[in-house]
Amino acid sequence: MILGMVVGTALVNIKIEHMKSILLLVSLLILVASCQKETFKEDELSGSTWEIWQYRESASSNPIPLNDTLIFSVDGDYTYNGYKQYYMLNDSGSEKKLSLYGTVFGDISGNISRDFNGYGEIVAKEFVTINQSSYVLWIRRVE
Asked: Are the C-beta atoms of residues 139 and 112 closer than 8 Å to each other?
């Protein structure tokens, strides 16, 4: 009887160790999957080049030509006319919110179409600064 109890206890210990290993593996898989999901969100613009080709300061003014280049790298970094800056692209209801820091307009944010990347352009969308100055921008992908 004692031998049976020892064998039974040993089997329970083996099963517990096996369960711990499985739990650790599942936890690691969930962690890796969640990291990849977050990276994909940032990388939607990664590796692409865009240009702001015109803007207007208010609804009543005519668009003004502009040739500012935005080259998006990874992890929220981009260059604006050769100067390294930071950007954020987040879900915002039925649209996406694009925030560009360090532009000639200052730090700006605007809501854009969820499909902007498929279209390759952002047409006449309002971007607002921290001080509530408003600019309407036309942006297109060049690569």
From this structure: no
